[in-house]
Design goal:
This protein has about 130 residues and is mainly β. It has a single domain, classed as Roll (PH-domain like), CATH 2.30.29. About 5% of the residues lie in helices and about 50% in strands. It contains one helix and eight strands; from the N terminus they run ββββαββββ. The two termini are about 25 Å apart.
């Protein structure tokens, strides 16, 4: 089940799912379900080290071609981020822009500045 996030804009609900903003068609569909009030594990991998933490309010949006061209003019195409990821970690909002690396049913990861941000649902332990 894939849940779209809706925001208010001008008194109407605006669809904030993965669209390119012009024709309303999806470019990249994130396969992992992301309910707004869900809990997730974020693993930040740098070289040989891995830090894990709990996060909430995960929101992923694809950057438009215009945004990428405007903000990353002098950057090599292989280093230009494709998505913007927003999440809350210990009450603080964090925003990361990176390239989509993994897009699976139970995991999604992004690579940026030598770090990999890997998100997966926090599942309760059943006894």
């Amino acid at each position: 089940m894939w849940i779209k996030t809706l925001k208010f804009k001008g008194g109407r609900l605006k669809d904030c799912s993965q669209t390119d903003g012009k024709d309303g068609k999806m470019k990249t569909r994130i396969k992992m379900p992301m309910p707004f009030h869900g809990n997730y594990i974020v693993s930040i991998i740098t070289g040989e080290t891995e830090d894990r933490a709990r996060c909430q309010r995960l929101f992923i949006r694809e950057l438009s071609e215009e945004t990428r061209k405007e903000h990353y003019k002098g950057v090599d195409e292989k280093d230009v981020p494709t998505h913007q990821v927003s999440f809350h970690d210990f009450g603080c909002r964090r925003i990361v822009e990176g390239k989509l690396k993994e897009n699976e049913e139970n995991i999604v990861s992004f690579e940026t500045h030598g770090k990999t941000y890997r998100f997966s649902p926090l599942l309760p332990k059943h006894q």
